[in-house]
Amino acid sequence: VELIAMDPSLASYERSLFAESSLRYSRRMQTAEANQKLDRTMEGLLGVLSRHFLSHAAQKALEFLLRHYRIHRHNSAALLRCILPYHGTRLFVRVAALLRGGDERSGWLRAAGGERISAPPPRSLLVQRAAKES
Fold first, then answer.
1. Cys-Cys crosslink for 82: which of 46, 87, 97, 133, Cβ 3.0 to 4.6 Å?
2. Tally of CB atoms within 10 A around 43
3. What is the pLDDT of residues 93-121, one digit of tens each?
4. What is each CA distance from 64 to 10, 17, 106, in whole angstroms?
């Protein structure tokens, strides 16, 4: 409700991803098509949620998505895009630490020696990683 007051475009996601019926949703019990549809919906939501990432309401929503839908495993690229603009914050580090270790995107979150970052990464590290990816 608080997020919808900040951004009315989130109302459609409330009805689908945050509805009480969504509590019974399990990715393991769905078809590949249903999970692909969920992934597209999640990408859209994370794109909108990114604008409000530092708000307490967005953090509560993100925590729900992490726990219930396991977006750090199934939607890691969209999650990384959502949090990347906030790379200078401790919150970025906390969420980024949840990304799968074996995922190629987790390489963005490692220092030169290969160890995980524990503080906001310097911009130069992110620029270097982006240049390497493109």
1. 46
2. 16
3. 999 888 865 555 555 566 555 666 788 88
4. 15, 10, 21
How many other C-beta atoms lie within 10 A of the C-beta of residue 6? 12
Helices (H), ranges, the chain: 2-6, 11-16, 32-49, 56-64, 71-74, 76-83, 90-96, 123-133
Q: Label residue 57 exposed, middle or buried (CB < 10 Å: 0-12, 13-18, 19+).
A: middle
Distance CA 100, CA 73 (A): 6
Q: If you write DSSP's letter for every residue of 32-52 in order, what string do you get? A: HHHHHHHHHHHHHHHHHHGGG
CA dihedral 19, 24, 30, 34 (to 10 degrees): 0
- pLDDT tens profile 70-98: 999 999 999 999 999 999 999 999 998 88
Q: How far apart are CA 66 and CA 89, in angstroms?
A: 19
Is there a contact between 87 and 120 (Cβ–Cβ < 8 Å)? yes
